[in-house]
Amino acid sequence: MTSLHLFDLDGTLMYGSAAPVEISRQLGVDRQIAELERAFAAQEIGPHDFSVAARELWADLTLAHVRAAFDGSPWLAGIRDVWTEIRERGDYCAVISLSPSFFVELLLEWGAHAAHGSVYPTVPFTQPVDVTGILTPERKVDIADRLCAQFGVGRADCVAYGDSRTDSMLFEAVPRSVAVNARPYLAARATYVYEGRDLREAYQLVGGARSGVEAS
Asked: Does 35 fall in a domain?
């Protein structure tokens, strides 16, 4: 049976941080993005409001900043190993994140079959955010369905990996899920729960003895 592994990015593939935080660090607006992150986590603002405000904070963003943020992020160990194993088994792996697509899509370099994020204006910015391109938890499920059609699998063949409330709808939509360093709300709804810094260990919860990936 072919499987599709669906990975969140912020707090899941990235340990204790998020793409907006790492981008903001490059521009010296850490305090401002932290307040937006707090308001978002408290559900005081939604994805659209967050994205519009973040774009204003990132007015001076360049592609060099984006690359530096990506390269300096606190990634879990073993991401490329897991995705190589998934490919070698004939399965598929994809990233679906509310973070900017210009950051998320860099994970294609590491072996993801697909990477989807919120669509921001082209960097460097000259246009405002079009909120119709900003992902929501509901749209994560829509993208998962599109990927299932693309790869010839169904929801029953999917495994979701996430850490927060924004992943809960996807967890409800697929039969297997892994809460990675997750908040209690999501951990209580997951098939498996993983705490640590190595994606190979989280993947082994799903692959079991069939997985050839080992943490070093």
From this structure: no
